[in-house]
Structure formats: C-alpha cells, structure tokens
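Check out a protein:
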Amino acid sequence: MDDVFKALADPTRRRLLDLLFKKDGQTLSAIEERVADMTRFGVMKHLRVLEEAGLVATRRRGREKLHYLNVVPIRLIHDRWVNKFAERWAATLNDLKRKLEDRSMEKVFEIYIKTTPELLWKAITDTEMRKKYNFGATVTSDWTKGARYQGMGGEATIFDGQILEIDPPRRLVQSFRALWSEDVENEGTSRVTWEIEPVGDSCLLKVTHDQLREHANTQIYGGWPMVLSGLKTLLETGDMLTTPGSLRWLQGDRGQEDAGKRTANDGTDSRQSTSRLSRKS
C-alpha cells in the first residue's frame, strides 16, 4: 500500500488517473494530447509509477499499448479503512455514477495475490472454496474443455455456461449466462477469462469480462471487485472479508437463495474496485 499512497500523493498522477476515469483504454499519444503542459517523457514517467503501484494496467492491442484505470488497490484501501463508515453512501453514489456512464462493455480486473498458481487455481475451481468468496454460490463442473458449469443459489440456478478453454493452472475461458432475474437473463451470453501469471512469490490474476452488449446491465459484471477482494483475503489470511461477497457464505442455504441478485446489487461500485473499461471500435 505504500506504493499506492506514494503514487496518489502526486497531483499530476491523480490528474492522469482522472483522465483514465473519464475515458479508459487510452494510448500514450492520446493521454499526451490531453496534458499539453507535460512532455511525453514526463507522461511516461508518471504512468510508470502508477503502473508499478498497480493503479494503471496496460494491454497491447495490435501495435497500440492501451492504458486502463485499475482500481483494485483503491478498493482494498476502501475495504480496510472506509467501508464500515461510508458503505451505504458509497453504494448510493456509485449506483448513480453507473447509471450516468455510457460505455461499450469490456471489463478487465487485476489483483495481486500472495499465493501459488496451483492454490489460486484450486480456489477458482473448488466448490467449497468458491462459496466462501463468491456470494455463497455453489459452482460445479468437471472442468474440462467443452464441459458445462453451473452456479446454484439454494435450489435455483443463478448462472451457467461452458468451458471454452482450460489450461491449469494458467488460463480458464468460460461463457457466462446470468439467470438470477429476467432482466439479466435477457442480456444473453458473455465471456469470462481468468489468467494467472506468477510474479515472484505471488500471482497476478487478470479477469476479463467481455462480449457484453453495449449498455449492458451492471448486474452482470458489478460483483467482480468484491469477489476478487474476497478471494485475495481468503488465500492470504484464511479469513473472509466482512463484505456481502464473503458473508453470504456464512448465512447458509437461507441466504444463498438470492445470491446472484446480491452479486449485482452489492457490486455496483466496480469503479471503486478493480475495473478497466474499453470502448470497442
């Protein structure tokens, strides 16, 4: 967290984060045009500090290198110090912000977890471990290419899909269909990609939720930040976060019945969590 606070302490770097907040997935040249009072070298230097702190993530698309706002570190700060004081206000304000946004939907989330690829893979695919951070949903599959998977909340199927690609313990690609309400069911099928990259004694987990229609219902992807924060806490400490994403498991079958709906409603603050948006051409 020291790197995060150091990066945020500089007003110029906060300004760059504001630019990415307004329009995510920008190239270096696009950012440079919006900060005419800075040299290209200066922009690169500040972006490097933000990237090292985990506040900016990059992805190459063809010959371009795109920069995305990654708010996982800010979400972790929020969970540690702010959540218990401002949860209701923050949820209300972020819900308003969601409704005002108008973007084509590709969501990318990143988080560093001090664990091994094997343990992280197990946490993603093991039914009992998944329950503890994924809103109590019971996720089952035989985890082979072409196989179906199913997420149950109580006795109801709240989401399902197919395993499109699987390469343990590095990469998992799934189709995703939300079923917890008529509104989300009408959104159709999207795609979720899990990528695990070893980094020293830790792992970088990237979750990309794409093939979402433009103006997609925020319930479809809004719960990811809370799910990933709960996953990190579970693997690093053995404990569960005091957030709905983890506490839902403690409520047992009675609480699981509407797990899918809570996934969305409690996760509408993906801006305060770890997200990156990109406008598709």
